[in-house]
Write a structure and sequence with these properties.
Blueprint lengths: L1 E6 L7 E8 L2 E9 L12 E6 L4 E5 L8 H8 L11 E5 L3 E6 H12 L4 E6 L10 E5 L2 E5 L5 E5 L3 H9 L7 E4 L9 E2 L2 H11 L13 H8 L3 H43 L9 H13 L11 H7 L3 E7 L4 E9 L1 H10 L6 E10 L2 E9 L4
Helix pairs in contact: 8-9
Length: 374
């Protein structure tokens, strides 16, 4: 299990020292910035970011956790708020309530949302646990951890003044701790790695201030997509945006073309059409009017030709305008040819022309016949 702890030893939330623990053992310690964490931290790991307690106001929650508790909590602590109240973010748990500058926590959350690990944000005073009130001296900071579980931090140059301010409200006799093994005997030495180990094992009992900020960059970082996958996603996104207008444009053009061709069709049938409402029914009606006349076309009775010599007939072309049919034959024996020409009158047709070439295998060419059609 890999756990990173990012901790600032000043009042700056950006400049941090990053500790990497593997299975509880310190593996590395590097100086960095919060914005660079996304390039350093492994995907399968936890990140604990300790925000300077001077930037977070912590209180005992005495208003509950119902839907109106945030408003009640803010109203109760309003006299302690220096910032514009509209720019204050609130985080409430069963035991504690935290107030922090909204713009500040948004910047922190935006930077940490780009980190691929599982992320937690806590005030740094939660790193230190002791019975009663305590003060931990770390470089230029003095971190206060109060008996009730709240805390803060100040510059160590102002510790005495701050202690006097607390004593005006209540009795205050804190235990003093330091991370400096060479400090005076008045301060009890504690090892930072031991504190980190305790925090790693117990931090999930605290309420995190981290809130994931959704953005294209944070989602891409979380998903660990390759450049090729990002390119494919970009192409798909562009297609989703651009293709619908193109498809709609094509449909519109096809619809206009259909309307134009439909209008041409109506004009070719009748010049009296000014509006097309139901094309199919209108066309059927027009065609019925145009072709429902007393002039009926009678198909000539030439079936006898096929019965007498159909295997020798290549094709028959019928011209209804002049009531004739041209029969093309090939190698028809003289007997079948004689029967066809002699029996035409019996079936109501008349041979009016022959263009034939005779040979030993039969006659080939065309025979033109006429038929009545009144």
């Amino acid at each position: 299990m890999i756990t990173y702890i990012a901790q600032s030893f000043s009042n700056s939330f950006q400049d941090i020292v990053l500790y990497k623990y593997i299975n509880g053992n310190l593996a590395s310690k590097t100086s960095s910035t919060i914005s660079d964490l996304k390039n350093i931290i492994d995907e399968d790991s936890d990140l604990i970011y300790l925000i300077p307690s001077s930037l977070v106001s912590s209180y005992i929650n005495d208003v509950g956790t119902d839907k109106n508790s945030e408003a009640a909590f803010l109203s109760d602590k309003e006299e302690n708020i220096v910032d514009d109240i509209s720019n204050v973010a609130i985080k409430i748990s069963d035991k504690f309530g935290y107030l922090i500058n909204k713009s500040l926590i948004d910047v922190i959350n935006n930077d940490l949302s780009a980190v691929r690990s599982k992320t937690f944000i806590y005030p740094d005073y939660l790193l230190f646990k002791s019975e009663g009130d305590s003060i931990f001296f770390i470089e230029d900071n003095a971190i206060f951890h109060y008996e009730d579980g709240t805390g803060t931090s100040v510059n160590k140059n102002y510790v005495d003044q701050y202690i006097e301010l607390i004593k005006t409200e209540r009795e205050f006799n804190p235990k003093l701790y330091t991370l400096d093994a060479n400090a005076s005997n008045e301060l009890e030495y504690v090892e930072l790695s031991k504190l980190h180990e305790e925090l790693i094992n117990s931090h999930q009992e605290f309420d995190t201030l981290f809130k994931f900020k959704y953005s294209i960059s944070s989602i891409l970082n979380k998903s660990s997509l390759s450049k090729l996958q990002i390119s494919v996603m970009a192409i798909c996104l562009i297609s989703l945006i651009s293709l619908p207008p193109l498809i709609l444009g094509s449909i519109k053009n096809n619809t206009n073309a259909y309307k134009a061709e439909t209008a041409k069709l109506f004009n070719s049938i009748s010049n009296n059409i000014t509006r097309v409402i139901e094309p199919r029914s209108q066309i059927d009606s027009l065609l019925g009017e145009k072709f429902n006349s007393k002039n009926e076309i009678e198909i000539p009775n030439i079936d006898f030709i096929y019965r007498l010599g159909g295997i020798y007939v290549n094709k028959i072309d019928i011209d209804f305008k002049i009531n004739t049919a041209t029969v093309q034959i090939q190698e028809m024996p003289k007997m079948q040819l004689s029967l066809i020409t002699s029996m035409g009158d019996t079936f109501g047709i008349k041979v009016i022309d022959q263009n034939l070439q005779e040979s030993s295998s039969g006659a080939s060419g065309t025979i033109v016949i006429s038929f009545p059609n009144e």
